[in-house]
């Protein structure tokens, strides 16, 4: 079999006879690949135990012993574990092992006899038995004395040989044991090595001293204090007497791969007792002179500092650890067993003649020695050890072994540190510490809190134990730049994944978030050399990108023989420094080397080179002048490619300087880093969603009460943030420290690193909401990232999480409260990528750079997903060609194994997928006047799921992409609001909006009706002349099944008509009752009927009410029938629960229910269920519910019919939940729900695009929102949305009121009504004194622009009028149908009463 390293090399030795292969084996004719049964000639991948040779070779003593090879540390550790971790037991195993010792026998005797009763004794016994038996046998056979003598001679020879072996072994064992004892107790002499050192030292010491001076001078130049002119090591010698090893003690009982010794060392050059007279004559003592030059220039003077009579002695323990590769020493651990003795003479002034040893100053000598011991102690005084790695694999802390490419795209919502001036942000990158010098700076973007950089910077690193800090700075003119905030990325994350794309990093300042940064971080390691099987190194791959270490070592003979000073005087030295530039950018500047024409710098700089062929290097040598400008001494320049050729091929290391005399010594080290091109437009900006994260907020417990001072409780809600952007949130629960939300939130994600933050907030109507605590959701806990054979990533959801976690504050310390939630991941439909797919069109990225009269930044549109590419490639043309004509075959499944649904024309059937992610790209917005505005996007939500960065102007180029989850395509609607920007989200005023059914959008996507890159223009509602340009993409969600309780069909308005009751219990003496009915929803009172006098079978008239239901699967409607009594308490006649949810309970179909009562009799009610998205109208910390109709056939009636809805008091402390709910949009009776109709063409304007009917069903319910036949209107009758925006005239009559709430002490009120349209009060009636049933009958005419009337009834007082209640009436249907409205409106709150209103459209 050919080896992997050399296919032509074959080894075919003879097969051992012991190897027998059964013929019946299933693999008899196939070579075995099992490591336990190697075939002769086979080379295995890992043959460490046999040193690279096949297993059928027997190599070394390990082939004949059962002991593990000590060259492999893991084998020794395994043996140690078998021996209960005893080092002595391991040493004992190896100390009794000899290479010639045979392998332990396992014969029959050893199986039955203990080792105490045998020890190869049977050899001797057998010899004696054979001798006796042989003597007896030959005697019986007639043999004589001669035979006995021969047998005795053989027995004696055997005995003599055996005794000699025994005595030799005993002697060897005794000698070995005595030597081991001596090694542990006695010091061995090392005179042989001392004799060697005494001769070698005389040769080695001069070169060592010269090397120390050269190195020390360059270090002293870098660290010379500013008040000194220079510091120079002018004299250095260690003398002629070599260091000595006084003795060595060895510890034999160690692990087999460890040698431990104690060396007693000394360097005492002043000890002359062991020197001969001739050695004394030639003896040189150690001497070190450090010259410090004071003053400047010619007026300076040098002061020598003398250090001599150096002596040193100490006891050092050395521990050598071996391994199997050359040089076989893995590491050396060194430590002093006790503080060494140090002696010296230091004369800082006076030199050798008049110098004074400062150690004579009392206390100074001990102080200096204590400082030395305090420095060396933690480093190498026992038990601390100083480890020297001998493998060559140790990473120097100065080496650069990798490149981190940091791509900074943009930042958003940055908050300046002061309130004055503009914010001009830029980012400085720091390695390891935010206070370290910056390694890179971005450009500065002026006057914006949402900068966009789109820059990639390269950071050279030594290892992945550091962090990269990104500090956002605000550039200031005339003062120091201010710190906006800082964020960081721990590089350890790059150990498993070399690329962190789509990071959304929160910028923190003083523990609080002040913005976020969108970035990518990638790691490119320097490749390590690999060995072939024969031990030769595999050359590193060639690359034009890499890390260059450029070393500037020294210069010689600068300035020639004559050099002049600044005044023309001749001087013999100069003060030289060098400046290194690469491609015109300064990379290194050395310190000034004073008073020498031969400066030594030994400086280097590490630089990342993107293209080795485009790198030019230049060096300028300058002379530093004290009293004039610095002058150029010489120059040198070369291209990097030419320099490397000269060093590697010509072995050149010195070059002649240009424009001057002298030579320069240079060196380079090149580390290739293959990395390819980095496309900053290919990751974060264009990342399509990989799936959706479902987070079910279950409950909170023991939350912090931030309203304790005001006597209330927190009003908590939970939200999900990606970075600093709120992606979804629950509704607040009032006055509740243990809230139960049971609300599922959906957040699309783009990367497994897009970790989410779950935060509990306290709602405040006026003030900013306060944080009650937060926690993090790491997406890797719920997403498993895999890859196909082609390297395409696959994202698969793990098992859903169910957690109960303690909340933390923004400083990530524990705070009060616990959050319980569930989380799961559901991926998008993803097709396999084409192998030779070309890069997509980049025109959108170029367009995104244009700021067009506004400054903004955000991710651009998502790139085309593989599903989109497949959809484009599988059109009708491809279907006609078929695979045989070269068209790509339609894939049956996606990369998750999910079956793909196709249409008849071979396109992906997006409409067949009920769930998905809709990507909405906001290209630009056109406003009627200059505004600072932002755009909010929401689907199936009352709260914004994405908010753009604010821009100011008339034409606002946002170029941002929002992603929102579509829960049910048939019912979902896209709402895009353009709002006037305000820091307080609650103060943002609506400028314009659009409302489009998602089904219409997806249907048009499937028909290729949208140009995603350029988008489609839509007119903004309520904004004359306003328009918005949008682009759409749809990604179906797979592996997801919606919980029926989350269905949009289970949230909405329940209209209840009280019909009759029968066979009620008699409560009065007359045998009858005065029955009335009280309805409660989840313990909240929602309606009370009028009593019907003196009957047991009442028939109720005009008893109709509508109540909002958040989830009809869990809500309970309860009816109680009472007997009305004029005096005393009412009597309960019976009660019952009315079912409002069942599988056969259809929406938009009136259903009559007959329910039995507990006290006897029955109650008949008619129920009409209308699914709606319920919006909340919050006032203070109270919550007044309002309803947003989602499902309309035309946005022209987006705020359609108005039906009075009765709320109920829920909660306590004056806080009311569910009160005053009014319908904001037209009902489902206009939705065309179940009858499909041919799709109408969709035009560019919003009117055309949105008026297309989706479904149709005529409602047979007697409950009409308008109490007129026009309540159910088909899509064809729907008017354009612009009908109301142009301003229409209506006549409004305020007729009367009833059951108004008493506001005065006398139990009455002085009510009047006022009407507001938009922000303007258009009419106010006269007040009627002392009544709760006022009659006004006052009419007025007004123009209606928004379609809504805000009607408020107030109590007239002398000083301040008091609100009784209010209602909102949407007159859009009146304007569209022409039919008048005449009805009673419930006032909010629930007990405020009702008002009778008539509205009629006026014709021109």
Task: Summarize the structure in short.
The chain is mainly beta. Helices cover 14% and strands 36% of the residues. It is built from 17 helices and 66 strands.
Explain this structure to me?
This protein is mostly beta strands and 1404 residues long. It is built from 17 helices and 66 strands. Strands 1, 2, 3, 4, 5, 6, 7 and 8 form an 8-stranded antiparallel beta sheet that branches. Strands 39, 40, 41, 42, 43, 44, 45 and 46 form an 8-stranded antiparallel beta sheet that branches. A 4-stranded antiparallel beta sheet has the order 12-9-16-15, with no helix packed on it. The protein starts with 72 loop residues before the first helix and ends with a strand. Residues 1-48, 97-119, 564-571, 680-685, 835-867, 869-885 and 1179-1286 have low confidence and may be disordered.
């Amino acid at each position: 079999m050919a080896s992997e390293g050399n296919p032509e090399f074959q080894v075919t030795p003879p097969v051992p006879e012991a190897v027998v292969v059964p013929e019946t084996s299933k693999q008899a004719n196939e070579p075995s690949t099992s490591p336990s049964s190697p075939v002769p000639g086979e080379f295995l991948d890992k043959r460490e135990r046999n040193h690279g040779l096949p297993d059928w070779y027997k190599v070394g003593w390990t082939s004949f012993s059962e002991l593990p090879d000590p060259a492999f540390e893991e084998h020794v550790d395994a043996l140690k574990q078998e021996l209960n971790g005893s080092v002595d037991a391991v040493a004992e195993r190896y100390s009794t092992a000899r290479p010639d010792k045979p392998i332990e026998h396992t014969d029959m005797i050893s199986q039955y006899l203990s080792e105490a009763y045998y020890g190869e004794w049977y050899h001797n016994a057998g010899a004696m038995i054979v001798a006796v038996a042989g003597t007896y046998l030959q005697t019986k056979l007639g043999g004589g004395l001669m035979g006995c003598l021969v047998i005795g001679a053989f027995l004696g020879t055997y005995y003599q040989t055996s005794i000699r072996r025994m005595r030799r072994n005993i002697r060897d064992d005794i000698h070995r044991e005595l030597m081991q004892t001596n090694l542990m107790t006695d010091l061995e002499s090392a005179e042989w090595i001392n004799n060697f050192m005494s001769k070698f030292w005389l040769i080695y010491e001069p070169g060592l001293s010269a090397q120390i001076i050269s190195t020390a001078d360059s270090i002293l130049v870098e660290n010379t204090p500013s008040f000194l002119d220079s510091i120079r090591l002018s004299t250095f010698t260690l003398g002629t007497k070599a260091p000595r090893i006084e003795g060595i003690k060895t510890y034999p009982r160690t692990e087999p791969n460890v040698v431990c010794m104690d060396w007693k060392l000394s360097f005492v050059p002043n000890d002359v007792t062991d020197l001969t007279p001739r050695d004394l004559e030639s003896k040189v003592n150690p001497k070190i002179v450090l010259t410090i030059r004071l003053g400047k220039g010619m007026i300076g003077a040098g002061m020598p500092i003398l250090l001599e009579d150096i002596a040193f002695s100490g006891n050092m323990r050395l521990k050598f650890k071996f391994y199997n590769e050359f040089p076989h020493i893995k590491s050396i651990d060194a430590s002093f067993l006790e503080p060494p003795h140090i002696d010296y003479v230091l004369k800082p002034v006076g030199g050798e003649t008049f110098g004074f040893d400062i150690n004579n100053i009392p206390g100074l000598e001990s102080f200096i020695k204590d400082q030395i011991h305090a420095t060396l102690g933690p480093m190498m005084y026992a038990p601390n050890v100083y480890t020297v790695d001998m493998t060559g694999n140790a990473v120097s802390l100065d080496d650069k072994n990798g490149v981190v490419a940091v791509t900074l795209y943009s930042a958003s919502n940055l908050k300046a540190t002061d309130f004055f001036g503009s914010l001009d942000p830029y980012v400085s990158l720091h390695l390891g510490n935010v206070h370290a010098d910056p390694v890179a700076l971005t450009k500065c973007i002026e006057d914006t809190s949402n900068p966009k950089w789109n820059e990639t910077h390269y950071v050279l690193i030594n290892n992945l134990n550091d962090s990269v800090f990104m500090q956002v700075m605000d550039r200031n003119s005339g003062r120091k730049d201010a710190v906006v905030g800082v964020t960081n990325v721990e590089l350890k994350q790059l150990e498993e994944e070399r690329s962190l794309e789509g990071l959304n990093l929160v910028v923190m300042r003083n523990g609080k978030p002040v913005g976020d940064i969108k970035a990518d971080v990638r790691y490119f390691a320097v490749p390590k050399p690999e060995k072939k099987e024969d031990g030769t190194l595999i050359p590193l791959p060639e690359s034009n990108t890499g890390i260059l270490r450029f070393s500037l070592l020294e210069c010689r003979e600068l300035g020639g023989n004559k050099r002049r000073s600044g005044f023309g005087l001749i001087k013999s030295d100069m003060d030289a420094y060098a400046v290194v530039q690469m491609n015109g950018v300064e990379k290194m500047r050395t310190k000034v080397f004073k008073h020498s024409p031969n400066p030594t710098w030994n400086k280097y700089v590490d630089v990342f080179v993107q293209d080795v062929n485009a790198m030019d290097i230049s060096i300028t040598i300058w002379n530093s002048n004290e009293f004039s400008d610095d002058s150029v001494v010489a120059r040198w320049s070369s291209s990097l490619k030419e320099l490397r050729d000269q060093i590697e091929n010509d072995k050149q290391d010195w070059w002649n300087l240009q424009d001057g005399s002298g030579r320069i010594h240079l060196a380079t080290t090149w580390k290739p880093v293959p990395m390819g091109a980095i496309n900053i437009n290919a990751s974060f900006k264009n990342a399509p969603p990989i799936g959706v994260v479902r987070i079910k907020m279950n409950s909170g417990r023991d939350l912090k009460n931030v309203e304790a001072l005001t006597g209330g409780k927190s009003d908590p809600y939970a939200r999900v943030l990606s970075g600093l952007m709120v992606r979804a949130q629950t509704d607040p629960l009032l006055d509740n420290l243990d809230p139960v939300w049971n609300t599922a939130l959906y957040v699309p994600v783009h990367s497994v690193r897009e970790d989410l933050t779950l935060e509990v907030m306290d709602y405040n109507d006026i003030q900013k909401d306060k944080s009650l605590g937060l926690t993090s959701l790491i997406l890797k806990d719920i997403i498993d990232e895999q890859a196909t054979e082609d390297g395409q990533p696959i994202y698969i959801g793990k098992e859903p999480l169910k957690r109960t976690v303690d909340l933390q504050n923004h400083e990530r310390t524990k705070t009060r409260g616990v959050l319980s939630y569930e989380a799961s991941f559901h991926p998008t439909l993803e097709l396999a990528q084409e192998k030779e797919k070309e890069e997509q069109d980049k025109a959108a990225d170029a367009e995104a750079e244009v700021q067009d009269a506004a400054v903004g930044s955000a991710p651009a549109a998502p790139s085309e997903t593989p599903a989109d590419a497949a959809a484009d490639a599988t059109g009708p043309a491809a279907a006609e060609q078929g695979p045989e004509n070269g068209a790509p075959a339609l894939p049956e499944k996606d990369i998750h194994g999910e079956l793909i649904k196709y249409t008849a024309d071979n396109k992906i059937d997006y409409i067949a997928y009920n769930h998905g992610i809709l990507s909405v790209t906001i290209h630009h917005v056109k406003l009627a006047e200059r505004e600072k505005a932002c755009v909010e996007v929401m689907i199936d939500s009352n709260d914004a799921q994405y908010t753009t960065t604010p821009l100011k102007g008339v034409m606002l180029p946002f170029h941002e992409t929002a992603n929102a989850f579509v829960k049910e395509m048939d019912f979902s609607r896209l709402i895009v609001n353009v709002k006037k920007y305000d820091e307080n989200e609650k103060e943002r005023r609506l400028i314009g909006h659009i409302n489009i059914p998602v089904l219409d959008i997806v249907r048009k996507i499937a028909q290729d009706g949208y140009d995603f890159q350029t988008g489609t223009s839509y007119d903004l509602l309520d904004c004359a002349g306003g328009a918005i340009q949008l682009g759409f993409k749809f990604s179906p969600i797979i592996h997801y099944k919606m919980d029926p309780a989350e269905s949009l069909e289970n949230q909405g308005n329940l209209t209840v008509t009280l019909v009759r009751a029968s066979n009620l219990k008699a409560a009065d003496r007359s045998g009858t009752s005065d029955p009335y009915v009280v309805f409660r929803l989840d313990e909240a009172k929602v309606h009370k009927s009028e009593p019907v006098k003196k009957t047991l079978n009442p028939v109720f008239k005009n008893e109709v009410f509508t109540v909002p239901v958040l989830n009809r699967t869990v809500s309970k409607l309860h009816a109680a029938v009472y007997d009305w009594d004029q005096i005393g308490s009412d009597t309960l006649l019976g009660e019952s629960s009315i079912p409002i949810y069942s599988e056969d309970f259809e929406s938009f179909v009136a259903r009559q229910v007959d329910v039995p009562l507990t006290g006897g009799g029955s109650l008949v009610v008619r129920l009409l269920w209308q699914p709606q998205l319920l919006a909340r109208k919050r006032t203070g910390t109270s919550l007044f519910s309002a309803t947003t109709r989602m499902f309309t056939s035309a946005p022209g009636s987006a705020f359609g019919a108005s039906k009075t809805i009765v709320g109920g008091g829920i909660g306590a402390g004056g806080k009311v939940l569910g009160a005053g709910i009014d319908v904001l949009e037209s009902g489902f009776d206009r939705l065309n729900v179940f009858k499909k109709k041919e799709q109408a063409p969709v035009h560019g304007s919003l009117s055309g695009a949105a008026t297309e009917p989706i479904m149709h069903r005529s409602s047979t319910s007697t409950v009409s929102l308008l109490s007129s036949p026009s309540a159910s209107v088909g899509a064809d009758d729907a008017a354009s949305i612009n009908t109301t925006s142009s301003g229409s005239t209506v006549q409004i009559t305020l007729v009367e009121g009833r059951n108004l709430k008493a506001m005065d002490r006398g139990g009455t009120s002085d009510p009047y009504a006022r009407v507001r349209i938009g922000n303007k009060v258009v009419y106010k009636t006269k007040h009627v004194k002392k009544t709760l049933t006022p009659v006004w009958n006052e009419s007025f005419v007004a123009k209606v622009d928004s379609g809504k009337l805000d009607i408020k009834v107030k109590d007239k007082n002398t000083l301040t009028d008091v609100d009784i209640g209010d209602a909102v009436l949407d007159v859009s249907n009146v304007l569209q149908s022409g039919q008048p409205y005449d009805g009673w409106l419930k006032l909010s709150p629930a007990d405020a009463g009702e008002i009778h209103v008539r509205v009629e459209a006026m014709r021109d």
